[in-house]
Specification:
The structure holds 2 protein chains of 2 kinds.
Chain A lengths: L34 H4 L10 H11 L12 H8 L3 H13 L3 E4 L5 E4 L7 H10 L2 H25 L2 H16 L3 H18 L3 H19 L8 H17 L2 H26 L7
Antiparallel strand pairs in A: 1-2
Helix pairs in contact in A: 2-4, 3-4, 6-8, 6-9, 6-10, 6-11, 7-8, 7-10, 8-9, 10-11
Chain B lengths: L6 H30 L2 H4 L7 H17 L5 E6 L11 E7 L2 E4 L18 H8 L4 E7 L7 E11 L2 E11 H12 L7 E4 L5 E4 L17 E5 L8 E5 L2
Helix pairs in contact in B: 1-3
The chains are: A mainly alpha, B alpha+beta.
Chain lengths: 276, 238
């Protein structure tokens, strides 16, 4: 399963077009899955794995608000499970307020909300993972992000830089943690688009799917737009100057800062009893 | 929130914890040796029969049951001292609530050959004949986890023939030691291995696996009191 990269990218600008708003919805014949979702890891707080996978696709922006999900029979085919199983997952997504189902000729199941975990879910998740796991994730994201900004420095044209600036502005104006997380994700996805590497874009989306809600949730790193804006501005300036080493250093600092904040958040959470 | 402990109290608690793990490894060595020492007279090379492996298994299972932080335990011979048809590694890993014998690739011509005699834990325990905490390291081709291995020499009839050791995963060490490290000033401290590698840490930039040649600016290193080992505590200068 791979991302529909070509569909969403116009050859001329390399910019991902805005998704048409509901009710002129896009229709999908399958759920585009990436990263953790594709490997079957159930994201935070989902009882049914396919509900979690679909929720991840929505949180990544692969399915936008207003998009129509594939028919139940198509989903059953895609996941290789019975229709009854898919219905349970869709019911869970409805219960969580992420989708709604309409009857009739123009009916179907539509995305109505981008999921964002509760602070409590994020705290529980942080409590359960180790610091060394966070460090290792940070190592991977630093490495991939440095590679992406390197290529973006060499390959980004004015249109890509403008798209990035717009994404940075949207983040600054986003109202709540959930919207901030989604705009943050778009900025960093856009960077990988500017790097012109489909493989790196896929890697980037997997990394973002793992980290974004942890960074923006008040139960996690509790990032603020003002804080991140400073980093984004330095990165954008370096991209405009095609200053590879400055772009890489700023990106590395930005990624590490998020990881250190998560480690601190985890440490303040716990007062574990000692064993052995 | 508790008051910060002095760094001396913290090094003492870390030292006690470390000694306790080595006490366990020393006890399990005595039991392993009781099973294998009869060979020394019988044959020039070690051969572990299936009956003996059953006895070793019981010793390993008992050890793992009594020590929840330990993920694997066993004994490893120097390869040249082992009969060709007997595996040189007798190793058990925790598997749910029981334990399982771990198989390794012992064929030197195989791309997945587990060439343990070159590894830090074997060199420390066997070559240097000293207690060693190896790692953290990725035990590639071994148990394939990010672990530390705590070893002591395996001595049979006054001769060092290999090592006895226990594996502790880095994330388990975190669970056990972070409550102690968090009592340092500002809650930031790290346990540093003999080679200057961070074992467990609450300091973001100097996490598990980081290599420190000297104390970074703003930090101090203080030795632990563990006999024959050069472990250190890293903490923020006040």
């Amino acid at each position: 399963m791979s991302l529909p990269l070509v569909e969403r990218e116009t050859a001329a600008s390399g910019v991902v077009p805005e998704v048409p708003p509901y009710p002129e919805s896009r229709m999908h014949s399958h759920i585009p899955l990436v990263g953790e979702a594709a490997s079957g890891v159930i994201p935070l707080g989902y009882e049914h794995s396919h509900a979690g996978q679909i929720a991840t696709a929505i949180s990544l922006g692969e399915l936008a608000v207003g998009d129509r999900l594939p028919a139940e029979s198509e989903l059953a085919d895609q996941f290789g499970v019975a229709i009854a199983t898919i219905r349970k997952s869709l019911a869970e997504l409805r219960d969580k307020g992420l989708v709604e189902t309409h009857r009739g000729r123009s009916g179907g199941t539509f995305v109505i909300k981008v999921p964002f975990p509760t602070s409590n879910q994020v705290s529980q998740y942080l409590d359960g993972i180790s610091i060394v796991n966070l460090r290792d994730f940070g190592d991977e994201r630093v490495t991939i992000s440095r590679g992406i900004v390197h290529l973006a420095c060499q390959r980004a044209q004015a249109a890509s830089l403008q798209a990035l600036e717009r994404a940075a502005d949207r983040l600054l104006n986003a109202e709540d943690a959930s919207a901030q997380a989604s705009e943050y994700s778009r900025f960093h996805t856009q960077l990988a688009v500017a790097a012109q590497s489909p493989r790196l874009l896929r890697l980037q989306m997997r990394l973002l799917s793992e980290i974004t809600s942890l960074l923006w949730s008040p139960g996690g790193a509790g990032m603020t737009p003002a804080l991140v804006q400073r980093d984004h501005e330095v990165i954008l300036e370096a991209l405009a100057q095609r200053d590879v080493s400055n772009a890489q250093q700023s990106m590395e600092r930005h990624v590490q800062d998020g990881i250190y904040r998560l480690i601190d958040a985890k440490l303040t959470l716990q007062n574990r009893p000692e064993t052995e | 929130m508790e008051f910060a402990h002095t760094t001396t109290e913290i090094t003492q608690r870390l030292s006690d914890w470390t000694e306790n793990i080595f006490d366990g490894v020393t006890q399990v060595r005595t039991k392993f040796v009781n099973v294998v020492e009869q060979h020394v007279e019988k044959s020039p090379k070690f051969y572990v029969s299936s009956a003996e492996r059953k006895m070793l298994h019981e010793v390993a299972a008992e050890h793992l049951a009594a020590r929840p932080a330990t993920d694997g335990v066993g004994l490893i011979f120097q390869r040249e001292l082992v009969h060709a048809s007997s595996p040189a590694l007798e190793w058990w890993i925790r598997f749910g609530d029981h334990c399982r014998w771990q198989e390794f690739d012992n064929d030197p011509s195989s791309p997945r050959f587990y060439d343990y005699e070159q590894l830090e834990w074997f060199r420390g325990g066997f070559g240097a004949e000293a207690r060693t905490i190896a790692g953290p390291y990725i035990d590639y081709l071994g148990v394939d986890e990010y672990i530390t291995t705590w070893v002591i020499p395996l001595v049979v009839n006054h001769k060092t023939v290999g090592v006895v050791g226990a594996d502790l995963k880095v994330d388990t060490l975190e669970k056990c030691l972070i409550p102690i490290l968090q009592k340092a000033p500002n809650g930031r401290a790290a346990l540093v291995n003999e080679g200057g590698r961070v074992i467990v840490s609450t300091i973001g930039p100097y996490g598990s696996g980081a290599l420190l040649e000297t104390a970074p600016p703003g930090y101090t290193l203080q030795p632990l009191c563990v006999a024959d080992m050069d472990l250190q505590l890293l903490f923020e200068k006040s």
